[in-house]
UniProtKB/TrEMBL annotation:
PANTHER family per record: C2 DOMAIN-CONTAINING PROTEIN, SYNAPTOTAGMIN
Domain C2: 129-254, 263-394
Highest taxon in the source lineage: Eukaryota
Upper taxonomic lineage: Eukaryota, Metazoa, Chordata, Craniata, Vertebrata
Protein's GO biological process: calcium ion-regulated exocytosis of neurotransmitter; synaptic vesicle endocytosis
A GO MF label: clathrin binding
Keyword set includes Membrane: yes
One Pfam family from the record: C2
Protein name: C2 domain-containing protein
Amino acid sequence: MAQNSLSSFQIFLPFSDTLKYTILAVAILLLLVAILLLAYNVYKYLQYRRSLYKGENVYLGEPYSEKKSSSNILWKNVAPSFLEIIRKEKDSKIQLMQKEMEKLEEHLTPSQPSTESLDDLDSNPDHVYRGKLKFSLLYDKKKMNLTIMVIEALELPEYSRDPFVKIRLFSKADEQQSSVQTVLYEWETKVVKNSRNPVFEQAFSCTFKESHLTSIGLKFEVKDFDKYSRHTLIGEVRTALKDLKASKTLEYCEDLQEKTKDIIGEVLISLKCLPTAQKIEVGILKFKTSPLSTISERDVYARIDVFTNQQKQKHQKSSLRAKSKVTVFNETFLFSLPDPLKTHCLILVSLYETVVNGRKLIGQTSLGNQSTKTEVSHWDLMMQSLRQPVAKWHPLFI
């Protein structure tokens, strides 16, 4: 009778004691893991409910689920660390855009006396010492040849790492009232790496008549080279050639000054506001250069950048046109403009010409609804003639 009275446990689990205890331990361990997971999910759910009461926009941690407030469709599950990285990158991009807008507003708005190029935004304040530039000039009267020797730069700011010098030779138009100038020649020195006192010792030369000395000026721009971004402008030096004595070398050592602008042409721009469609139409009609400009066999095009409420819209480009004294584009471009009365809008128009290794900036101008001029601005004229294009000439700066 004792032999037949086996327990049910022995009947259904005819295993060794070691295996029985192992299975029991695994079952208890799985139960504990399940309890911990349940407790953690309850904790995260309570956190989520608490954040909803506070009105916060949170990512749902390890459950990885997020719901759109405008619909009942669940977003795709995304790891919280990845979402956090995206959020941080977005915040940093917004901060960079705000800084860029501040620079553009400072240098590119029509209320300012000059317009700053996107290629070399100047972040150096007026009162900061910028260093010196040493150069020499020699005009040979017999050969009608001007030799420009860039010797060295001295005591450049600490942030200057790889400096170089860009040289422009300007000639003013014959008209006394005209402020438009012509860039006759452009040169660049070599880049001297890791030096605040770079030695260049480079010479450049050009030919023109002695009678033209009174209308010609030189501008030296010392810049910090950046392969992956815009070159940083350190400062500039200007000198007129009217006092240059023939056949005698004159050596200069001048302090670098804040960048100033030169007008090298005009562009005819039209604006049209479409309030119902919440858009603005920017038209590039004509581009006019100085009468003294030499026309090379190059194509030109316009690029339009629009910034609304510190948000940069996708830029648009015109088609290529053969460069001439008066280049005709007659092209229009549409950009979003949600509220013309409240939206802070800045329009930057850049003219480029094609060269062998890319493009070359001809000049830039800017306009928008932040003008403080006493005269009626182009933007105000547009707002007074809704749905009608209003055209106006704007100077091109370089």
